Amino acid sequence: MVSRAELLQAVRRVAPALISQESAPPVFRSVFFDGARVTAFDDEIALSSKIDFDGFQGGLDGKLLIGWLSTCTADDVHLEKQSKSSVKLTCGRSKLFLSTLGLGEAVYKRPDDDNPEDVWLGAATNVVEAARLVIPCMGSDMAHPTRVGVTVSIDNDGIATVAATNNVTMAVASVQTDVVAPYSHFEFVMWPRFASMLESMSRMDGVRNITIGVDCGWLLAEFESGDELFGKTGLEVDIGTFVGMAESLDADLKFGIPVGDRFAEVVERVAKIAQLSQSKNQTAALKITSHGVQFSVNTGLAALADSVACRHTHSECSIVVNTAMLKNVMAQVTELAVSEHVVGLRGPAHSVWVSAASGAV
């Protein structure tokens, strides 16, 4: 017997790693119980959460299980084996018969904890926070290695450079980690889904450890709740490209325009007006004047002109920017610079570049 609420919560936590299409192989539509955890794997990421379902070991259709548990009202769920390949679930007066898969049919096998070749990042709080800053610029263009996911490079001193670009925006963050030699000086890529799940899960659940399977190309994040996130990692990394692009972009930028809450509020308002545009490009004009920063947008349905007064020594110039992109990268930035090709923003640990609406980074 197991609590219906606890079982439903655990299965829902791993549901993002289920493939729901009926045409998908059953193994990717199933949640697998091993007596201590429930796990789902869609051949890209795996999610695992702690639960003991009456000692049951095997796979059940995740979508059907969640749907049934959501409609039940009784407190407890009982599981009874009907045969080698079927079970009966009972919750109050409601019953559900499901086919089962053997635990050995599960594709995902949790990596071995004892492999000395793997790299242990510890709590990795700084790496997760750095990834959070660059994820708004993350791309998914498989044809270009630098435009896929989040690239991480850790040098011999344990300093991690974390970078991402979608070819319209780019962000690079630099943070200190606890990784020391001989495990330092290595690089990897978080694929987009792993990076997005890591960012969203870590908002509510602290990351206890991240392990990197250097030879096998995988990442395993363990959370304070006991939940786990597994993902494959890219092995083709070119952090030098990011560093080179950053230096090239900064060569034309003179930072020093202060960015605060007032600036973020104006960007938010401008972005909302730009959303009314019938064009795919939600743009606004950004102008640096001797008195501060001016924004203007006209969609035909609505228009807005707003400004932020500030002291600076930046030269006067104008640029057209994608307001949605600019809004997405505003987190923790403190200063601004503008050239005819790009808007640059800086924070204590990272830099972001947003290209002119007609160009690309």
Explain the overall architecture:
The structure is a single chain. The protein is α+β, with helices and mostly antiparallel strands. Helices cover 22% and strands 38% of the residues. The chain has a 17-stranded antiparallel β-sheet that branches. Strand 10 (139-140) and strand 11 (148-154) form a beta hairpin. Helix 4 (125-134) packs across helix 5 (192-204). The N and C termini lie far apart (57 Å).
Task: List the main descriptive attributes of the protein structure presented here.
17-stranded antiparallel β-sheet, 361 residues, 22% helix, 8 helices, alpha+beta, four-stranded antiparallel β-sheet
Mean pLDDT: 88
Gyration radius from CA atoms, angstroms: 24 Å
Give start-end ranges of low-pLDDT stretches: none
Largest sheet: 17 strands, antiparallel
**Structural category:** alpha+beta
Task: Write down the overall geometry.
Answer: elongated
Name the beta content range: 35-45%
Count of separate DSSP helical elements: 8
User: Gap between N and C termini, in Å?
Assistant: 57 Å
Indicate the percent of residues in helices: 10-25%
Strand tally, please? 25
In short:
The chain is an alpha+beta fold. Helices cover 22% and strands 38% of the residues.
Write the layout of secondary structure elements.
Layout: E1 2-3, H1 4-14, H2 26-29, E2 30-34, E3 37-41, E4 45-50, E5 57-61, H3 62-71, E6 76-83, E7 86-91, E8 94-99, E9 119-120, H4 125-134, E10 139-140, E11 148-154, E12 159-165, E13 169-176, E14 186-190, H5 192-204, E15 207-213, E16 218-223, E17 228-234, H6 239-250, E18 257-258, H7 261-274, E19 283-289, E20 292-298, E21 303-309, E22 317-322, H8 323-328, E23 335-338, E24 342-346, E25 350-355
Antiparallel strand pairs: 1-6, 2-3, 2-5, 3-4, 4-17, 6-7, 7-8, 9-15, 10-11, 11-12, 11-14, 12-13, 13-25, 14-17, 15-16, 16-17, 18-23, 19-20, 19-22, 20-21, 23-24, 24-25
Helix pairs in contact: 1-3, 4-5
